[in-house]
Design a protein that fits this description.
Blueprint lengths: L2 H23 L21 H10 L2 H4 L4 H10 L4 E10 L4 E10 L5 E7 L1 E7 L1 H5 L3 E4 L3 E5 L10 E14 L3 E10 L8 E3 L3 E2 L3 E10 L5 E10 L5 E7 L1 E7 L8 E6 L2 E6 L9 E14 L3 E4 L4 E3 L8 E3 L2 E3 L14 E2 L1 H9 L16 H9 L2 E2 L4
Parallel strand pairs: 1-9, 11-20
Antiparallel strand pairs: 1-2, 2-7, 3-6, 3-8, 4-7, 5-6, 8-10, 11-12, 12-17, 13-16, 13-18, 13-19, 14-17, 15-16, 18-21, 22-23
Helix pairs in contact: 2-4
Length: 380
Amino acid sequence: MRPRTMILAAVMLALATSNIAFSQVGCGNPRSGSCTEANQTPFCDDAVCCEQVCDFDPSCCEIEWDSGCVEAAQGICEFPSLVSLGDYTLDMYGVGVVEIRWQSYDFISGFQFDMSDVEILDVSGGITGDQGWDIFFDEDTILGFGGGPSDAIDPQPEGSLLLQVEFALLGDSIAMSNVIFSDPQGQALDIEVGPQLDINPCRLEISGYTVNSSGTGGTIDLGWTCDTEAVAYQLKLSGIEVVGYSGGYSQLDDWDIFFSGGGVLGLNWTLDNPIPATKGPGTLISLDVVYIDDFVGFIPDVVFSTADAESIPLITNGTIRLDVNPCPADLDGDGMVDGVDLGILLANWKQSGGDIDGDGNTDGVDIGLLLAQWGLCTNG
């Protein structure tokens, strides 16, 4: 075979192979690419839209799904726009970020929606950030719009990131409601809203405490609610020193509990007797403690593990103030509330050094509390 003939045969073979590959893709195959984006191959991923466009312009299914095919799809195909909740992150304090995903064959110039079971903390990023939209929000509502028709968001393929929402979780799920999206003419679009996002985090919390008569020590109960079994955990609390433990799941067979400072490590060596899954709160452990501070809270990197060594997502009730000081107005610690304590309070006016009520500031409220506790401290 002559060289020129060989080259021609190779080209024909490549074209034939390419056509076979194209024929294997076809309308509706996800490999075909989005109907709203130009591809280097024919067809698109929505079977109905693909067939409608190719009836109008056969080259879209014979040669290439180009910008003309995209324009035709935007004019011919009728799809409801979809807004949905995407991936999310959540830290141990119940604060996280969730993606708002968007797809539409229409231009949009504004939107508004509510979010349930969360407190909205911030909004950023996504298409709205790229186009400089104005975004407003309060505790549970988000409002966004562009400056004019030229700022309208173009049709977007499935899964496009509209924006990201930072939130504090208040329940076990997140849902969107009262959703309104409008086009540049101010007309409301037909919108489908994705399903709620079920998070159902496990919960570790300070569920109760006691204080001895001297105010120096007592017990702290840790509550645990989780629908996943756990065979090991590690946690640490600020403001206390652990000196012993009892009760709760710490009494399960084959468990060893270790403690040091404010830290606790629990291990089920055999893996045969895990902390059970529970829909209601149970007591994980009751800690015998010495109080170092009035404020006690979980320190980050709390870890609970399954038998497969997978970390269990959880949230805590963070840091809380315990009423462990029987005489908070005794600022010098001599057992008396007197003129010395009043002097300390006045010397720290509008600062934290004379704070009695725990608001971080020394003011008239603290003077009132000091005078109410005037005299010899009594342990209650």
